[in-house]
Amino acid sequence: MYLPRHLAIIMDGNGRWARQRGLPRILGHQQGVEVVRGIVEECSKLGISWLTLYAFSFENWGRPEEEVEALMELLATYLRNEVPTMLKHGIRLNVIGDTGRLPGAVATMLDESVERTRSQTGMVLTLALSYGARDEITRAMRKLASAAARGEVEPEDISEQRIAAQLDTVGLPDPDFLIRTSGEMRISNFLLWQLAYTELYFTETLWPDFSPDQLRQALHEYNRRERRFGLTAEQRSKEGNQEEGGRH
Ligand code: IPE
Ligand code: IPE
Ligand code: MG
């Protein structure tokens, strides 16, 4: 089986999972964290090189204060519990998003966790926190405009590579495969630039019910996709259709 080199997941449906059980939303998020643990471990075992999880969007700041606070606490607990596991599995933690908006204690913990796992050589686990793709692109444009104003960049030198280098995802390959749970068929401001040629996969399963088995099912579907990148099928098969993925 060919694996996506970079798998990205929009983990959606925690609230509905809780509502279906007559529970407060936060219990859905708690169960969601349990599923994160299992899926991270499974991806690392399978040999996926980059896993990016959409954990908290820029727009999610607009949710009720109690929910935002509870999510921040869950994040802190997750980091406290999981860094030792990351170290055990060789996982390197990375973060994208406007993390300056996170509560100070969480931001510090995040910095420390990234630092502690910095020399790990296995899977790179990127958490998208306080992340919005338009915000990311806006911040990147500001950096480029400042460099231009200082005379460090000429407008004609602005290339796709230069733009990509200013994004939070610098150093990560574009996702090969995106999974969104909970049946919503939208991107919700996730990785707009980077998803240009990503294969998209939507499942009705709510995130707290998503299992390693369903992950494998999704990866099988990825194997059936024919990625053409704008070329003809004949050109692509000459180039070796799946060279961007790793053989498993
Ligand atoms: C995804 O679940 C988790 C976050 C956005 C933090 P939701 O909380 O969006 O769950 P639904 O979509 O309301 O069911
Ligand atoms: C996207 O889910 C963000 C995360 C999964 C973190 P949302 O629940 O916030 O997205 P919408 O509101 O349904 O588009
Ligand atoms: Mg949702």
From TrEMBL:
Residues involved in substrate binding: 13-17, 25, 29, 57-59, 61, 63, 180, 186-188
Pfam families the record matches: Prenyltransf
EC number: 2.5.1.-
Keywords, comma-separated and alphabetical: Magnesium, Metal-binding, Transferase
Protein name listed in UniProt: Isoprenyl transferase
Catalytic site: 12, 60
Molecular function, one GO term: transferase activity
Swiss-Prot/TrEMBL cofactor(s): Mg(2+)
Subunit structure: Homodimer.
Classification of source organism: Bacteria, Pseudomonadati, Thermodesulfobacteriota, Desulfuromonadia, Desulfuromonadales
InterPro entries: UPP_synth-like, UPP_synth-like_CS, UPP_synth-like_sf
Superkingdom in the source lineage: Bacteria
The UniProt record lists the keyword Protein biosynthesis: no
Family recorded in the similarity comment: Belongs to the UPP synthase family.
Cofactor binding comment, as recorded: Binds 2 magnesium ions per subunit.
Primary role: Catalyzes the condensation of isopentenyl diphosphate (IPP) with allylic pyrophosphates generating different type of terpenoids.
Residues where Mg(2+) binds: 12, 199
Record region (Disordered): 229-248
The species this protein was found in: Geoalkalibacter halelectricus
HAMAP family the record matches: ISPT
Basic and acidic residues composition-biased segments: 235-248
